[in-house]
Design goal:
- It is globular, with a radius of gyration of 12 Å.
- β1 and β2 form a beta hairpin.
- It has a two-stranded antiparallel ribbon.
- The protein is mainly alpha-helical.
Length: about 70
Amino acid sequence: MQNNNTYSNIPTEAARLGISQRLLWRWIKARRVPSIKCGRRVLLRPTEVDEALDRFRSSAIGEAKTT
């Protein structure tokens, strides 16, 4: 389990998730995945990315959203 204060970048998160960097960028631009812009860098919290993906999966298969 990672600390909630841990940040990651686009290439690292894309590799961890097994998706392309381009797809992750699209999700960020569409505001599906929360991100933090720090100058020219875009930072992600792995825990928030995982939560966002869980919401996608739930809505894709028709499960009720839990908060």
